[in-house]
Design a protein that fits this description.
- The complex is a heterodimer of chains A (279) and B (259).
- With 279 residues, chain A is of the alpha/beta class.
- The radius of gyration of chain A is 20 Å and the shape is globular.
- The longest helix of chain A has 16 residues, at 174-189.
- Chain A has helices spanning 45-52, 74-83, 100-104, 106-110, 115-128, 144-156, 174-189, 201-207, 225-230, 232-237, 244-251, 254-257, 266-278, and strands spanning 3-12, 22-30, 34-38, 60-65, 68-69, 84-87, 162-166, 193-198, 210-215, 218-223.
- In chain A, helix 5 (115-128) crosses helix 6 and helix 6 (144-156) runs parallel beside helix 7.
- Chain A is 41% helix and 21% strand.
- With 259 residues, chain B is mostly helical.
- Chain B has helices at 2-11, 19-35, 38-55, 60-82, 107-133, 136-145, 150-179, 186-217, 236-258; strands at residues 83-85, 95-97, 103-106.
- Chain B has a three-stranded antiparallel β-sheet with strand order 1-3-2.
- In chain B, helix 3 (38-55) runs parallel beside helix 5 and helix 6 packs antiparallel against helix 7.
- The two termini of chain B are 45 Å apart.
- Classes of the chains: A alpha/beta (279), B mainly alpha (259).
- Chain A binds chain B through residues 50, 53, 55, 74, 78, 81-82, 85-86, 88, 90, 92-99, 101-102, 105-107, 109-111, 115, 136-141, 154-155, 158, and chain B through 3, 6-7, 10, 135-137, 140, 157, 160-161, 164-165, 168, 207, 210-211, 213-221, 223-228.
Amino acid sequence: MEYSLAFDGVVFRYPDTVKPALQGLSCAVPKGSRTAVLGHNGSGKSTLLLQAVGVLRPQQGSIMVSGRQLGYNRKELADLRRRAGLVFQDPEQQLILSTPQDDISFGLRGTGMEEPEILRRCGKVLELLNLAEIKDKPVHQLSLGQKKRTALAGVLAMEPELILLDEPTSYLDPQSEAQLLSGLERIHAAGATIVMATHDMNLAYRWADWIIVLDRGSCRAAGTPEEIFAGHAVLRDAGLGLPLLAELWYSLPGQLTRGQQAPRNAADFKSALARLLGS
Amino acid sequence: MIRRIDVLSGSNALRAISPMWKSLFAAVMFILSYALHPVLQAAIAVWMMVWCTAYARIPLRAYGLLSGTALLFYLLGMPALLLEPGHPAAAGAGIYELPVLPLYVTAAGLERAGLLLVRVTACLSCFLFIILTIPFSELLQVLRRLRMPQIVLELMLIMYRFLFILSDTAHGMLLARRLRGGKRGFRDKLGETAAMAGVLFAGTMHRYHGLSQGLMTRGYTGDIVLPPYQPRPVPRRYTIQAYAGIVLLLLAQWWIIRY
């Protein structure tokens, strides 16, 4: 299996803290996957993402992005920022310029790209994330959902092969969440690898095709959703619960569900239930 | 207030006109406000108000509130301009003693304050024209075109972003404290304000740290490259009016000096 991102024995401790945030973390994200990094608050999810884009540097171990070991000199970091983009949980952290259009072009202008290409890429992501109508509106007048999509657009404009998102759906209403996820779906269809750190189990269950479970700075389990959600104990030990659909499915009598794949969304669950009741 | 200014500058009727032209027009009017006769300064103040309220369709109330707030600073400086301490050496025309207090006002002081008021109002109206009709992002582009140092532009940009972030944070904190009952009495409120300022400072540092991380991840290399200036047309109607107004003001000044 080819990996977009791989951690090997990474140890990291923030200054003035006793316990390391990452304790010998080893895990990998398959290329082209939709990976959810699960873990409770303080499990190391955000630290993992900051390590992956070179903002934090591990004290031990190594990180590979698209098969290349992460280097920390100016040139290597500039190259990394073109290949991997991070969308922060709080969009205020990364919106710098005054309007969505200007902000999206921020990273591109830093690379010295020609103006027509900048405008082409901006137009493309504005369209993709339904931001065209608000492209000239001041950033502080946007809703949280619009700010999150603008932050994502700024990352997407760089056309990275690896996109990392820290709690992208937190504080979003269902409509904004759906808009964001549909944008992500299109980006994934275009070939990007997406890694999402979240503790929203329901979202991870229906969205991801690869799961990494973090607990106290190390990888507790990694695998497909079927593998992870069937092993309830791993999630329980990591301080996480089961998603509602999985809980319902696994609460059905074993002889009914044996040999069948757990449904990943409400529609699948409904048809699986109809099949079971029919038989 | 800052949000109101921001909304108005982004939605006024002169928004589509070249920001460079508007800036240069305001700059010329500003110089004239400083140099011309007080009667013409008053005319400039009225004319620039017409540009803002009639052409740009800025609500009169918002315009009045903004200029009134700015003029408060002038009012605060008034006592220093008007009042003389002690008692006048000799009572005469143009000297008015205040009852009870050992202070008096001279006609010269009144004239000085009046002249200053006209000049301040005229200069202020030029500034208001800039801040109410040009969105901040376009103003930065104009300044960049005028070769303002990059570091100044970056500082302005970051400060502008932080103004809104901080105002949101402060508003949230204030609301939270009010909902929890707040404090009663002047002393308690003073203590509460001081505590809030401390928390706000800590919050600012946290935001600063977050923004610097955000800049790093977005490929910041030491320079924030601003979008290039986009030239825009100016309707003939406005150019004719502006040039004609400037010529008229200069002719009027020449006439006043001459006669």
